[in-house]
Amino acid sequence: MVEQSELEADWSLVTDDDALERAAEAVAAGSGPIGVDAERASGFRYGSEAYLVQVFRRGARPFLFDPTRLSTFAPLAEAIDGEEWILHAASQDLPCLDALDLHPPALFDTELAARLLGYERVGLGALVEARLGIKLEKAHSAADWSQRPLPESWLEYAALDVALLPDLRDSVMRDLEAQGKTEFALQEFEAVRTRPEKTRSAEPWRKLSGGHALRSPRALAIARELWFARDGLARERDVAPGRLIPDSSIVAAAGASPRSKGDLARLQTFKGRASRSELDLWWRAVLTGKTTEDLPGPRPRDPGAIPHHRGWPQRHPEAAARLAAAREAIRAEAERQRIPAENLLTPDHLRAVAWRPPEPRSAEQIALRLKELGAREWQIGITAPIITAAFVELA
User: Fold this and answer.
1) Spatial distance between the Cα atoms of 116 and 362, rounded to a whole number of angstroms
2) Last residue of some domain: 194, 217, 234?
3) What is the pLDDT along the chain (395 residues), one digit of tens a residue?
């Protein structure tokens, strides 16, 4: 086993546009797929933008790009256009890379590949240790990457993460080929690469953790006003909202409906680093929620949404029976394929088919329905006959 301290990554930190041009030329002159990584400060800053972008290609050193000091990433985007990018847990980094106009033309996701291979541990550190025999230190993975200057030990960590991706990709690819899962992986990678951006919620405050405990319209109004007050202050200060007051404090204050600013200050469950220093702001929000005539109703329901499956056995026993039978059949096939059941078929897709199966309940019709829901061809080919057989046995 090789310890991280025994490794050296001859990396370069890129902090101006001229250096970016030279780095892009070096990367373009390299060979093979390109390891890409990004570091954010989501738990510290308001947004989720990248504060460091790491790129490595064989034949060139790892380059660490500082987005806060670069006017454009266009030369880098041009240098790596048309090449396969290697990322680990790509869905986490693609949005912040997209914001920099860095879009992979082809993708290899080492974490997703590891899941399809049935590996028990799919984190980057665990994979590098198991596949490459290198023990990485993950001490800086949750650090505040927005701070400047960045410590050299953090930069070394970031460089090693990306420098090992090509070797890890090759090792994982050999296993995909050995298990006959290369096509599965390629379809999954493409689905991640082309997945559309999530639509923004019209009422983002309803996503408060624990907010389901608030039942009355007045409590919901207080929670809404506190959420908007916190969001505005967080945006102004460029700090993660939860670092001002956590969701639990908003829910506690909304549920308690304090009568005065003093009552709010004495509420022990209303806490957070800005809970007292910005008490006037929070009290104004509470007061607005207590007096507004714009009272929110229950959470709007999607007319096409299906009921929660936990209530099916009592209210919809036939749908529950279909789901149970198909789920067990999928689980057995997942074990045989050595693929997690949720990767073999997205649980939401299975529930949708079980709730409203097509007629006739043939493998062809179920395949069409799964395709409409967004299942990949490899998933459909394996699971449509299994689901059909499970439904037929219940008929």
Assistant:
1) 27
2) 194
3) 555 544 566 899 999 999 999 999 999 999 999 999 999 998 899 999 999 999 999 999 999 999 999 999 999 999 999 999 999 999 999 999 999 999 999 999 999 999 999 999 999 999 999 999 998 876 666 789 999 999 998 999 999 999 999 999 999 999 999 999 999 999 999 999 999 988 888 899 999 999 999 999 999 999 999 999 999 999 999 999 999 999 999 999 999 999 999 999 999 999 999 999 999 999 999 999 999 999 998 877 776 788 889 999 999 999 999 999 999 999 999 999 999 999 999 999 999 999 999 988 899 999 999 999 999 999 999 999 999 999 988 76
Range of the domain at 209: 204-291
Q: Which whole-number Å values give the CA distances from 250 to 223, 257, 297, in the listed order? A: 6, 11, 18
In a domain, 155, yes or no: yes
Q: Which of 287, 36, 337, 262 is nearest to 168 (CA)?
A: 36
Instruction: Please state, in angstroms and rounded to a whole number, the distance separating the CA atoms of residues 16 and 22.
Output: 10
Neighbours of 135 (CB within 10 A): 15
Residue 388 CB neighbour total at 10 angstroms: 22
Q: Do residues 37 and 158 touch, judged by C-beta distance below 8 A?
A: yes
Give the Cβ contact number of residue 353 at 10 Å.
26
Q: Measured between alpha carbons, how far is 115 from 342 in angstroms, rounded to an integer?
A: 10
CA neighbor of 324 nearest in space, from 350, 290, 288 = 350
**CATH code assigned at 117:** 3.30.420.10
Who's near 236: CB < 8 A, 6+ residues apart? none
* Single-letter code of the amino acid located at 52: L
d(CA 134, CA 390): 45
Please give the model's pTM, rounded to 2 decimal places: 0.91
- 135 CA to centre of own chain: 25
